[in-house]
Design brief:
With 286 residues, the protein is of the alpha/beta class. It has eleven helices and twelve strands. Helix 3 crosses helix 4. It is globular. 48% of the residues are buried. The chain binds NADP nicotinamide-adenine-dinucleotide phosphate. NADP nicotinamide-adenine-dinucleotide phosphate binds next to helix 10.
Length: 286
């Protein structure tokens, strides 16, 4: 049932935890966030996605990473992979790109401290910075990797051209892009399959449509019908659909509540037929 992380021998549960909702809202008590992480791990989840910027602004960079480190520090966390990212900043709560080698190096070194680890298993470039040559950003990640601070390099918010450029510099094990029933361009263009051909895990972010849209899934008649016939929820059916769209896809649903994390983990048991998958494909069709 598990899925390999890119070309590595690391195996992870097919559905990860997107930890962003535990950090950016700024109102969730620390113990509640820790409880969500513990429940996700108990339900089988072994891949946690975070970023240094999952916080409210530049003053609390690393908040989400420190929460995860604290949560994992109090349980047996062997086999749990934490993937983080660098390349953005949060002035006054805005999201801005910073892809210079100097910034990436200092961000990575702070993430090592905040995660309390000697090496980051998967470090992802959060987004290309139009003001910095992409090869300079990826080149710095490759240097951090050669120094042992990063074990594996991933990219986020990229297309095939940038992926090709990065693959000429170092081994890329993952690409993390938005992918859900409303935004399935990477499925339709063949990019997800291109990643698979290159032994790259495609990490599907905002798989429910994103923090602002996820409730819309409840209004999709096809999803509701399939949820009823599979004794599941529209959210679980959505994740089951993504898992069927490629064996290199790793959806990372966000969760601010225990019930969301646990229910998402149980979506691995929802087995959709090819016909059901085609019906869901039709939801996002123009
Ligand atoms: N690389 C990037 O640029 C980028 C951008 C955006 C997100 N991400 C990553 O992707 C992750 C997921 O994206 P997202 O958080 O934006 O959106 P999402 O996963 O599409 O939706 C998140 C919301 O859906 C609800 N939900 C999730 N699973 C559910 C379930 N099984 N049943 C009922 N409700 C459920 C959660 O509500 P509750 O909060 O109430 O539990 C959660 O806040 C993030 O956490 C982050 O790690 C990456």
């Amino acid at each position: 049932m598990k899925r390999n992380l890119g070309s590595t021998d690391i195996e992870v549960f097919p559905i990860g935890l997107g930890a962003m909702p535990l950090g950016i809202r700024g109102t969730l008590p620390l113990q509640d966030a820790i409880d969500v992480i513990h429940s996700a791990v108990e339900a089988g989840i072994s891949f946690i996605d975070t970023a240094n910027v999952y916080c409210t602004d530049n003053q609390d960079i690393g908040l989400n990473e420190r929460t995860i480190a604290q949560a994992l520090g109090s349980i047996d966390s062997s086999g749990i992979i934490v993937a983080t990212k660098g390349g953005l900043v949060r002035p006054q709560g805005r999201w801005e790109r910073r892809g210079s080698p100097q910034h990436l190096r200092s961000a990575c070194e702070k993430s090592l401290q905040d995660l309390s680890v000697e090496a980051i298993t998967l470090y992802q470039l959060h987004a290309p910075d139009p003001l910095v040559p992409f090869s300079d950003s990826v080149g710095e990640l490759a240097r951090l990797q050669s120094e042992g601070k990063i074990l594996h390099v991933g990219l986020s918010n990229v297309g095939q051209d940038l992926l090709d450029e990065a693959m000429d510099i170092t081994t890329i094990v993952s690409v993390q892009n938005r992918c859900n029933i409303y935004h399935s361009v990477d499925l339709k263009s063949g990019f997800v399959d291109y990643c698979r051909q290159n032994s790259i895990t495609y990490i599907a972010y905002s798989p429910m449509g994103g923090g602002g849209r996820y409730t819309e899934l409840r209004d999709e008649a096809v999803l509701s019908e399939l949820a009823a016939s599979h004794e599941s929820t529209v959210y679980q059916v959505t994740l089951a659909w993504l898992l069927k769209k490629g064996d290199n896809i790793l959806p990372i649903p966000g969760a601010g509540r225990i019930s969301s994390a646990v229910s998402s983990a149980h979506a691995v048991h929802v087995d959709l037929s090819a016909d059901e998958v085609r019906r869901i494909d039709g939801i996002g069709a123009p």
